[in-house]
Amino acid sequence: MPLAVEISGLLGVFIVLMGAWGVLAPSRITDLANRFGSKGGLWFAAGIRLVLGFALWFAAPQSRAPLLLQVLGVAAIIAAVVIPFMGVDRFKAMIGWWAKLSTTSQRAWSLVAVAFGAVVLWALLPAAT
């Protein structure tokens, strides 16, 4: 199995688990997100998206949904490039926006993360022959 597929799979599992955690304990995810409201957190967020983007791009040819993974990979790379230009204040504002959401809204967005991670994992399965 190529390294890009393995990295994409690990990140997909991570996304599903973080989303599930957000569904079950939204206040805990908010506490965790607040810890990343710094310059280091901003660069970490950009780095994770960059790794995910390139991993999805390079995993795409071996997947069952290559176009989907390429589109998601490009979107993640664009997000990784844009995040540092936002600046720490806007980054903190985004985290603050999340923290102010109702518990129901936080759970709904967390379900979106679970679905996103599940789609990535499904797409990484080998193409049906």
What does this structure look like?
This protein is an all-alpha fold. The protein has one domain (3-124). The chain has 5 helices and no strands. It has helices spanning 3-24, 26-35, 39-59, 66-100, 103-124. The longest helix has 35 residues, at 66-100. The protein is globular. The protein starts with a helix and ends in a 5-residue tail after the last helix. The mean pLDDT is 92.
Characteristic key phrases:
85% helix; mainly alpha; 0% strand; 129 residues
Q: What is the strand tally?
A: 0
* Number of discrete domains: 1
Radius of gyration: 15 Å
Main sheet characteristics: none
Strand content of the residues, in percent?
Answer: under 5%
Provide the low-confidence segments as ranges.
none
- Helix count from the secondary structure assignment: 5
Helix content: over 70%
Mean pLDDT: 92
Pattern of helices and strands = HHHHH
